[in-house]
Design a protein that fits this description.
With 469 residues, this protein is an all-alpha fold. It has helices at residues 25-36, 39-50, 56-84, 88-91, 93-96, 98-136, 142-159, 161-187, 196-200, 209-225, 231-235, 241-269, 277-284, 288-320, 325-340, 350-375, 382-385, 400-415, 422-441, 448-452, 463-468. Helix 1 runs parallel beside helix 12, helix 3 runs antiparallel to helix 12 (241-269) and helix 8 (161-187) runs antiparallel to helix 14 (288-320). The longest helix is centred in the N-terminal third of the chain and has 39 residues, at 98-136. The radius of gyration is 22 Å and the shape is globular.
Amino acid sequence: MAEKSSAIEQFGIQPIPKELRTVSRFDLFSIILNFLVNPGMILIGGEAVVLGGLSLWGAFWAEVLGILGAFAIYTIMATVGVDYGIPGQVATRSMFGIRGSKVLSSFFRSAASIFWFAFQTLSASLGIAALLHNLFHVQVSLILVSFIFAILQAFIAIVGYDSLKVLSRFSFVYKIVILVLAIVLMLSFRGHGFNVSAAFHYTGHATHVYIEIAVWINSVFAAWLSMVTDAADFCRYSSSRRDMWWATMGGALIGTALSAFLGAFGAALSGGKQENVFAVLPAMYHNGIFIVALILMLVFDNWTINVLNLYTGGLSLANMFAKLGRVRATLIASILGIAISVIPALINNFTGVMSGMGNVFAPIAGILVGDYLVMKRANLDVPALYDPHGRYWFTGGFNPVAVLWMVLGFGFYYIVPASWIPNVATIVVVGICYVLTSYLVRDWIPGQKAAMESHMPEPTNIEAVEIQL
């Protein structure tokens, strides 16, 4: 199935053998923390202050609560990777049907991965351009920086999971040291133009504070919710559920807290005028060595998260077109990501874009959790996931109940008031309705009853079945 001697990961959508599931708690923790400590998350904290009009602490808690809410869903689906060693997109075949998974969830996830690759590249490039301008007093092309940066990131993603693990280990300590140093320097600044005490008491300019906080919680929730179908991808080399839970939640909480505070504090220091903390820091400490250290942090930081974006995007494309394989699918995702990473407009209107993303992924998340946790009781028939004649074929390769509630969920999301946090409301309502409907029609729709059974047969060799797909 895989060439162990190759430097490039050969596993695509097939399960990872148990003997290769040896990734430690620390490795997964560093991957998740690296994912959450990134230019995009830092920029979101600043935008919540400047564009959302929130206070320092309002922006901080909106980002932290949004991520923790999404991770409650994320960790449920991450157990699929730990238990079975399969990618999340393959697992969605048991909910949407083998064809439904390819046409629906994998398509949306591929698009989200490519968007996040471009968003993160542009966010980091924005910081790098500001730092280079401060260091050399020249105007650097944001498009050129983004293009070069995107190509470098794509190379590591194509190599695969081992490169991601090594990169995370290498960048982990450096990033945290520089990030903490930046926060300490900002807190201890006593020069002209920036008042630390005033930043902590900055109240913002939002008229309806609660509603604005709810909007940003919902936006951040949606940002990570778009990863829910890929949760298993990060964990399919992990050795145990306990390691996954501790590493994932610990990395999420610490990483988000650091990113949110740095971004929101920088914006509050500027009096709500500058959302890019990497434009604020050089104005406080115009030191060449410090600026170069920040540039390197942005490079390592963004490199790590965007390798994950392309890696999971490649697996999603591989689920849609199995003959591509992981390497070629990742290459295609990389080319598309590079192409749109030169469009600066992508970093504008974050809440609007995330509202659209929540509209897509909140119903999907509700179906996934209701199906996997409630109906199947966290049990999957792995060979059937690759078998066009198995229990997950449903009707013509689609689960009509899942398709119905995904479409209805799209509409429901937009009628929920912002103060109710539409992502949460949609997940709960769609999840409950999907489960109830599935039980009501299980005797009427072909394959529905068999697919809902939680008792699974003993694992068998699936290589021959996979080749058919």
